[in-house]
Amino acid sequence: MQALTFLLIVYSGSALVGLSLLWFFYDGRDKCSFEANRRRKVFHCVRCGNLYSVRKGDVSTGEPCPECEYNNYELSF
Ligand SMILES: [Zn+2]
Question: How is the chain split into domains, by residue range?
Fold first, then answer.
């Protein structure tokens, strides 16, 4: 009876560890994809009115519009 209880505890514990590992893996993956979308920089072209975004880190020198190539600066809210 003792051995059966021990095996039951090991089985339940390993299932709990496995589910926790899956949870950490999928939570981290979702967080990475969310951060990648959240860090987009938004631009509004003052020449043609086009609204566009980029994923660059540093946009202090502006970013050219994909429609008319006019250099615009990041929108700040
Ligand atoms: Zn433009």
Answer: 1-38, 40-77
Q: What is the pTM of this model?
A: 0.54
Q: How far is the CA of 6 from the centre of ligand 1 (A)?
A: 69
Distance CA 38, CA 42 (A): 11
The total number of residues written for the chain in this structure = 77
Q: What pLDDT, in 10s, does the model give residues 19-74?
A: 999 999 999 999 988 887 788 889 999 999 999 999 887 888 999 999 999 999 98
Q: Which amino acid is at 25?
A: F
Residue 50 CA to ligand 1 centre (angstroms): 5
Question: Distance, CA 67 to ligand 1 centroid (Å)?
Answer: 5
